[in-house]
Amino acid sequence: MIPASEPTQRPPDAKLLFIDKFGGITHIRRTSFDGLLGAGDLVVANDATPLPASLRGVHSPTGRPVEVRLAGRRSLDDVCDFTAIIFGAGDFHSRTEDRPAPPRLRTGDRMTLGPLSATIERLLDHPRLVGLHMDGPADAIWAGLARHGRPIQYAYVPVPLQLWDTWLPVAGRPVAFEPPSAGFALDWRTVERIRARGAVFATLTHTAGISSTGDIELDRKLPFDEPYRISKSTASAIESTRAHGGRIIAIGTTVVRALEHAASRDGRVRAGDGLATQRIGQTSRLRVVDAILTGVHEPGTSHHQLLQAFADGATMRRADKELDAMGYRTHEFGDSVLIERRPRGNQIIPD
User: Fold this and answer.
1) How far apart are the C-alpha atoms of 272 and 77, rounded to whole Å?
2) pLDDT band at residue 349, thresholds of 50, 70 and 90?
3) pLDDT tens digits, residue range 212-240?
4) Of the candidates 199, 194, 196, 183, which has an alpha carbon nearest to the alpha carbon of residue 33?
5) Which of 76, 178, 312, 328 makes the best surface tag, with the fewest CB within 10 Å?
């Protein structure tokens, strides 16, 4: 596996590794994804658009430069209070693992972030993780993010990302922190082909969170709790699909988190807002999702752990070897995998 270094969402040579429910592995072109669907299937994508969530500025008590990466929120509608990760001087050209620590942070510290100001309201359980309050009215915060913020970016893409590099063709509210990039495989022509197969396409909104912090201990806390919203039409489509024996295919790990959390009480997905708090992995029993289309994730990451709810460890190890041998590209602009759920499962273990 190699990092995808060009910010191209749908390269013409994009590959797809398909793992069927019995562990069989097939390689196809990603543009042929719709050929794996059948009449009565339901494809659910995340329509969240990412905020410009990287903010460079100054730690006011010391005058030292910082980068603030917004990384979490309790509500889709809140634009004032965030969980944030704070780096010292530098930018995406340096690997997150190599970024210097910020100055010592204290409750009440203020930061100037371009036209915005923010206050550390609480220190969380890591020296770089804080609860951050953006000062001022919501309209001014939105304007400041638009003027000063940039997409969160990592060193494997050497050129500065523009916001439109991270926007999905199927896009809704700007509530995510990084793009729900499994959806890069879709465009409206793909949606037309999905419907031509007799399948149904629907969306939900989930605040796709930060994928890496550059710190091993902090990465172990990922994914953070993430709010989501499921519309009445999507909840109805899920109920109808299940009643008629169709499959539910999630586009990305965020869709899996939202749907499985929504169904955690009694197995039903209802419309409304929620906060996904669970961690999904090899011991999880999936109640809703039958298959996942996602990016190529490296072993050891929280995204890769989620995939083990679909395929057992031996199958995932075989798949990882295939991905290496065939030169699949990782990260948000990389290739894809489609995994059908194995015909067994265990109970989701709540936090």
Assistant:
1) 13
2) very low
3) 898 889 998 899 999 999 999 999 999 99
4) 194
5) 312
Domains and CATH numbers, the chain: 11-50+160-340 (3.40.1780.10), 54-148 (no CATH)
| Pair 296, 316: CB distance under 8 Å | no
Length, in residues, of the chain: 351
Helix (H) or strand (E) holding 272: strand 272-276
Burial, 191: exposed, middle or buried (Cβ in 10 Å; 0-12, 13-18, 19+)? middle
Cα 138 from chain centroid (whole Å): 25
Contact 260, 269 (CB under 8 A): no
| 38 CB-near residues (< 8 Å, 6+ apart) | 197, 198, 199, 246, 247
Cα–Cα distance, 297 to 305 (Å, whole number) = 9
Relative to beta strand 129-134, strand 116-123 is: antiparallel
| Distance separating alpha carbons of residues 28 and 260, to the nearest angstrom | 28
Nearest to 12 by CA among 33, 31, 32: 31
* For range 76-105, the mean pLDDT: 94
Structure letter (DSSP) for residue 54: E
